[in-house]
Task: structure prediction
Amino acid sequence: MNSSKPKSEAWRLPRGPLQLERRQDFADDAIIGGVSGFVQQWVHQASAVISARDLQAALGKLAVEAAQYAELGKPQRKALLAEVERLGSLVEQAMDKQRTRPPSVIPALKWDSPLSQLPGIGPARTETLAKAGLATVGDLLQYYPLRYEDRRQPQPVAGLQHRQSTTLVVTVTGEGYLAYRGSQKLAIVPATDGSDLINLTWFNQPYRATQLKPGTKLVVTGMVRLHKGQAALAVAEAEIVQDEELHVRRIVPIYSAPPFSQVVMRKLVQATLEGCNDYPEDRVPAELLVERDLMPLGQAFREVHFPGNMETLKEARARLAYDELFALQVRLAQRRRAAKATPESAAVEVGEALAELRAALPFALTRAQERVMGEVLEDLRRPEAANRLIHGDVGAGKTVVAAVALLAAARAGKQAAIMAPTELLAQQHYRTLRELLGALGVEPVLLTGSMNGAERRRLLTQLMTGEAAVAVGTHALFQESVAFKDLAVAVIDEQHRFGVRQRAMLVGKGPRPNCFVMSATPIPRTLALTAYGDFDVSILDQLPPGRKPVVTEVTTRREVGRGYRLISDVVSRGRQAYMVCPIIEKNEGRHLAAAESMYAKIREDIFPSLKMALVHGKMDASEREAIMERFRAGELEALIATTVIEVGVDVPNATAIVIMNAECFGLAQLHQLRGRVARSSDQAYCLLVCGTGNLDTIERLQVLERTNDGFLVAEEDLRRRGPGEMAGTKQAGVPDLRMADLLADTRTLAVAREDAFRLVDEDPKLEAPENAGLREWLGGEDGVGAWTL
Result:
């Protein structure tokens, strides 16, 4: 039998914990986390390296049986542990056989080759990879590292400092042993890097003492402690390695939540890179690669996984990020060109709409409103249909901007519609527009889902005949029964609350309407270029004069009394307040403030005389909106709510908001919520009650203490959370970007956009031979792009 050690011994069964369980009479308290978790973890590690199907099946059965260990009687527990040991021996024998086989030759691989063609990837591993979304060579090579560790010159033990975080390459020098600190078990394993000795320590992982045999080579990361000249490392991460060339003496990739261990993942990626000679190099035209001095694709994949140095890693990232952003911008450029290529004119005669509206307003427009209104009217004058995103902070005056487009369409003898996501917001728009446009002789109509009978039939007739020039409504506007005589302007408010198909259905109600989408959530420029690359973008970056920034403070759950005092204070001055909770009902598994229990507590124990109500998403829409209307009318002093108040609640008299468990929300959503109390010239207050003492969480929330600028908040949210996690961005159309970072790669995005729009101008359908690879990558004319409007 070959006596050499395997390259990774994670599959070896640690028998020490099982022996301790026997000595403690199978009480299931010998192993931290229980026998069940211990066995299942070992089965996962062993199954990842064993190729024998019958043994894999036996291990799978064992994992299922081990899950029930806590419910078994003593005889059954004893039998189960015997089976664990039996299979542990069989795994060791199987690994001995596998090690004596001649090394496998890596076959030639193509970009779309299944990973099952790699040596050592049997059915079990293939299934595990598939669950992680990895089926082909291309999938695996685009599973990019989360970070890197520079192990080219490992830190010597002899030079370590107390409380230093470090990564070491060491060899176990002797048998491990257990020590105790109070109720905690401490596994201690002696090791050396050749310069000095160090004790490796693991808390509450006693099996480490017997798992790691003398001579085992490790890469360990953790915190150093020096005591009386002796160094110890509290180990946070550990890898058992043999192949130093792959895992140690280089810049080493660290993958996020990989389906296998880091060691196994590196070996798989290395084998794939060695076998693949079929990269889709032609997906970006060759002249662009030369013009932008971009690294060849095959080299970029090799360098991004196993970089020679940090400079080549930077170049590899730049190439891969460019490819993603270039493809995205090509599709957006094609859609923008197609929208403008329709022969039928979408022009609207705007006349004196702006002057009329300005004269009718009881307030002066801000410079930002004047600028954006000019952009909107210029869009309407053009024969091409407008596609414009209007975004800005809560209270920046987007409805007034929309009003000028609605008025222009009405004055030109055409029709316009504005769609909102909720009846409450639609009714609010209706009231505002009735005041603004009614004085000019244009009476809007309101169409919502709750309308029926004669009233609904009358409204549908008015829209079909053109008698109603301006319609305000919810999703009811795009239902099949609704027909317009000549819809020329479609405005979609809080656009991220609608799906792409819903927006398209409203736009489809006219021959070629001009489309304006509005968002109260400020969007970073890079995200706007990504999600709305086929839109023109207007920014309302001013608030009406006299508006004061909301005073925002972060506090902890222990100081929730400050929230009660804030509510009491504003109510005593004749104002109103909100309290927002992240969930509706108490959940035993989560210690979060629930709206229902908070409402009962305040009503019964804190403010029994306060006129207040509860609103949440499970209520019937009509009941919820009736309560909101009472709050708007001043009949209620306080509202306990979930995030249903995030959009469309305009109550100028509300000047305080307390948000419980603020850590549950993104920064942009919190900014949107506090905008509910930024509706007047009165000083407003927002208290963010954090349910955790985690310093990183508190520091994130404190961004809102420092700024009321929604664009700065949105940038910070994007930086911390990523585009896919920000509220609404999936609906808005942000694709998954595996490499590109919308903040770090701002310059790359600008360059890719310039190149993409120029290429589409020259070859709109990508018919040129040099663009064949790009056309195939995008999936033809109807391939990707479902994420755009």
